[in-house]
What we know:
Blueprint lengths: L1 E4 L7 H6 L4 E7 L2 E7 L2 E3 L2 E6 L5 H7 L2 E10 L4 E15 L2 H12 L8 H4 L6 E14 L9
Parallel strand pairs: 1-8
Antiparallel strand pairs: 2-3, 2-6, 4-5, 5-8, 6-7, 7-8
Amino acid sequence: MEIIRNSRGHYDLDEFLKKPLFAHLSTVENDMPKDSPVWFHWEEQCIWIIGTPSDSFPRKIKNHSACAVGIVDFDVKSGKVLHVGLRGHGTVEPFDSELAKRLLRKYLGTNEEEWDERFKHLGDSNVLIKVVPETVVVRDQSFEPSLDS
């Protein structure tokens, strides 16, 4: 995995990817790019995403494995703009409930009894998308804020 960084401030990639941020999974279908907002989990230098029966991105990944994942941590008041872009290939993997729980705990907390009902009973009708990055772009694009607090 090649990591490309800009010359501005550096930040820890692994710590960044632990944050409960939204990612955008970009796939290709019929030579057209498609974008899906997703929750993700970073483990063993791979991005993991839960796919449900109603999601179209697992089928797109099966048909065309090249994909990209973009993640941004942005705060307009402070001027913070941290970006990670991963480019590589995805595969559709069998559902692993323990890995899925690790992903969901990041966004929903550790008390599974308090989770939204949609996330309490995921099972074998779901899949996991595994994105293996070939390149990772890590950029600090922060700026001096100009908006009043």
